[in-house]
Write a structure and sequence with these properties.
Blueprint (H helix, E strand, L loop, with lengths): L1 E7 L6 H11 L3 E5 L7 H5 L2 E16 L9 H5 L5 E5 L5 E5 L9 H5 L5 E16 L2 E8 L6 H18 L4 E8 L3 H7 L4 E6 L3 H16 L3 E7 L5 H14 L3 E5 L3 H8 L4 H4 L3 H15 L1
Parallel strand pairs: 1-8, 1-9, 2-7, 2-8, 9-10, 10-11
Antiparallel strand pairs: 3-6, 4-5, 6-7
Helix pairs in contact: 1-11, 5-6
The chain binds iron/sulfur cluster (2 copies).
C-alpha cells in the first residue's frame, strides 16, 4: 500500500483539484483530507457521513459555583488571567474561567481549597468516515478558535490507514495542508512521498522551495507538479532548472484550462468532467506516479 500526500507552499495552487482528480483515477484507495483548518475536498467529493466522532484535545478549568467559597486563590495563581469575576443573573459575584484564555495548566484546581475546579476535556472538533462516489474518505472539522490541528491530522491519517488496511487498499491519497506549519508536518509522517503543487510565479517558487526543504528535512521523497505552467513559461523554465539543480523529479506540468473551473462549478472532478487539456495531463501524471 502506498501513501502519498499532496501539499503546496501556499493555498490556492490547485492542490485540492489535483487531489480530487487522483481520487477519480486511483482504484482501490482511501482518501484523507488532512487540510483540517480549511477542509474543502468534501466540496468536490460530496461525502455521505457514515461515522462521526468528537475530537477531544486538551483540558479547560471549570468552576462549580456551588462549591466555590470565593477565596480568590485561583485568580491569584492563574498566570494567564483566565479566571474572572462576573455577576450572576441574581446579581451575585461569581468566579468564572474564560475558556479561550485558559491554557489548561490545572494550577488553579490544585490550589482550590474546596475542590470547586474541575479540568474538563475540550471538544475541539469532529472527524468523520464517509462514503464518496470514489470510495471512503476520512475527514475532519476543527472547531472555531481550536488548536491542535496537528493532532487532528495525525488522527485522520491513522484512521485512514486503519481503514485502508481493513479494505486491503493499494493507495492512501492525502490532501495535505498548505504551508509549512504543524498540520502539514503531521500529514507527512509515514508517507511514501510528498507531491508538491506550485504555480509559475516567483512567490510560487519561493513557497515550493520552503515546503520542499521541509519535506527533505524529514528525509522524505518529494516530487513537483507545476500547475498553470503555460501562464508564465519563463518562470516555468526557472522552476525546471531549480528541479534539475536539486535533483527533484518534476513529475508533470498542467496547463491553465478553463475546464478546471467549469468542472468545479458542476461539482465534478476534472476527470469526471471528461474534457480539457489539463485532464489529459493529470491522467499522464497519475500514470507516471503509478510506476514510481
Ligand atoms: S480557588 Fe476555588 S474556592 Fe477559591 S475562588 Fe477559586 S474556585 Fe472559588
Ligand atoms: S487551568 Fe491554568 S490557565 Fe486555566 S484557569 Fe486554571 S490556572 Fe488559569
Amino acid at each position: 500500500m502506498k501513501q502519498i500526500v499532496i501539499i503546496s507552499g501556499k493555498g490556492g495552487t490547485g492542490k485540492t483539484v489535483v487531489t480530487s482528480a487522483f481520487a477519480s483515477l486511483a482504484k482501490n484507495k482511501v482518501m484523507a483530507d488532512c487540510d483540517v483548518d480549511a477542509a474543502d475536498l468534501h466540496l468536490l467529493l460530496s461525502p455521505q457521513i457514515k461515522e462521526k466522532y468528537e475530537f477531544k484535545s486538551g483540558v479547560t478549568a471549570v468552576i462549580d459555583k456551588e462549591l466555590c467559597n470565593q477565596c480568590e486563590q485561583c485568580v491569584q495563581v492563574c498566570r494567564f488571567s483566565a479566571v474572572n469575576t462576573s455577576q450572576s443573573a441574581s446579581g451575585e459575584k461569581e468566579f468564572v474561567v474564560d475558556p479561550i484564555a485558559c491554557e489548561g495548566c490545572a494550577f488553579c484546581s490544585f490550589v482550590c481549597p474546596t475542590k470547586a475546579i474541575k479540568m474538563e476535556e475540550n471538544v475541539s472538533g469532529e472527524w468523520y468516515i464517509s462514503d464518496t462516489r470514489f470510495g471512503s474518505l476520512v475527514h475532519a472539522k476543527l472547531g472555531i478558535a481550536s488548536e491542535n490541528s496537528g493532532k487532528l491530522v495525525t488522527l485522520v491519517k491513522q484512521k485512514a490507514k486503519e481503514l485502508a488496511e481493513k479494505q486491503n487498499c493499494d493507495w492512501i491519497i492525502i490532501d495535505g495542508a498548505p504551508g509549512i506549519g504543524c498540520p502539514v508536518i503531521a500529514s507527512l509522517s509515514g508517507v511514501d512521498y510528498a507531491l508538491v503543487i506550485t504555480e509559475p510565479t516567483l512567490s510560487g517558487l519561493h513557497d515550493a522551495d520552503r515546503v520542499i526543504k521541509m519535506v527533505k528535512h524529514f528525509k522524505l521523497s518529494v516530487k513537483l507538479i507545476i500547475n498553470k505552467y503555460d501562464l508564465n513559461k519563463e518562470m516555468t523554465e526557472k522552476i525546471e532548472e531549480y528541479c534539475k539543480s536539486r535533483d527533484i523529479p518534476l513529475i508533470g506540468k498542467i496547463s491553465f484550462d478553463e475546464s478546471m473551473v467549469k468542472a468545479m462549478i458542476e461539482g465534478k472532478t476534472i476527470i469526471e468532467y471528461g474534457q480539457g487539456k489539463a485532464r489529459d495531463e493529470i491522467i499522464t501524471i497519475w500514470d507516471r506516479l503509478k510506476k514510481t
